[in-house]
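TA notes, week 10

Several of you asked for a full example with nothing omitted. So below is the full record: structure tokens for the whole chain, then the designed sequence directly under it. When grading your own attempts, check the secondary structure regions first.
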């Protein structure tokens, strides 16, 4: 832990300066090995704002650029923030619905960038925004162990406090237009063609819930879920989740 303490002190000295994110990343790397580090700010009204990342090239384009085009609305971490959870640690494999790793969102965002596992620390900023510092491992490495998750949770309060002190009220997003909420996007996608229940079902499909999980949450039979899915696809003129995801992004 002495190495962590030394680098944490450097991060504290860098507060308010351009090198703070890199110093904080370096401190965390002394505790837990990871490949990717990224920090996004969410205020619930606009698209996510990238505060920092250590990626380059195509990976940066997917994780930072394409993510803000709409997939963030399906992100399990964003789902936690929207539900009011703004402290502790987010762990992708604990939060993801049972079919998440088969979704088109996972294939286009995580699989293409090689991300295997991800953990995030949320921090409440002035003005109501929430910043999330995420570290991720790529496919050549194992997922985060239970010991590593506990260690990340132990340092989360300090990391969150430093993030809040450094960024304060995050600077306004370059895009001043308000971003739609998930429910709004789903209704745009539905185009008055789907029933309320069908909209609910396709929203859960996009998030990564299996037919069995949807049935359990909505207290209906799995067969009924499949009928809703079939009818929704027919009304929308599509035949796959890939096409459903494309319609979703086009509706954001």
């Amino acid at each position: 832990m002495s190495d962590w303490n030394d680098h944490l002190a450097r991060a504290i000295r860098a507060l308010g300066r351009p090198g703070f994110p890199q110093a904080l990343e370096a401190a965390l790397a002394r505790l837990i090995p990871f490949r990717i580090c990224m920090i996004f700010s969410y205020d619930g009204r606009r698209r996510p704002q990238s505060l920092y990342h250590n990626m380059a090239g195509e990976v940066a384009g997917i994780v930072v650029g394409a993510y803000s085009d709409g997939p963030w609305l399906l992100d399990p971490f964003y789902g936690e923030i929207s539900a009011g959870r703004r402290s502790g640690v987010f762990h992708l494999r604990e939060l993801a619905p049972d079919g998440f790793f088969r979704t088109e969102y996972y294939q286009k965002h995580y699989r293409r960038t090689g991300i295997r596992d991800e953990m995030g620390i949320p921090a409440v900023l002035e003005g109501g925004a929430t910043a999330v510092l995420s570290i991720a491992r790529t496919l050549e490495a194992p997922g985060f162990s239970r010991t590593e998750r506990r260690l990340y949770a132990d340092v989360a309060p300090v990391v969150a406090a430093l993030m809040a002190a450094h960024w304060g009220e995050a600077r306004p997003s370059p895009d001043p237009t308000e971003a739609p909420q998930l429910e709004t996007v789903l209704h745009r996608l539905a185009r008055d063609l789907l029933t309320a229940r069908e909209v609910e079902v396709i929203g859960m499909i996009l998030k990564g819930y299996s037919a069995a999980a949807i049935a359990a949450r909505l207290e209906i039979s799995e067969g009924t879920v499949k009928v809703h899915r079939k009818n929704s696809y027919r009304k929308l003129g599509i035949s796959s989740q890939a096409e459903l995801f494309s319609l979703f992004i086009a509706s954001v």
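The chain has a mean pLDDT of 93. Use that as a sanity check on your answer.
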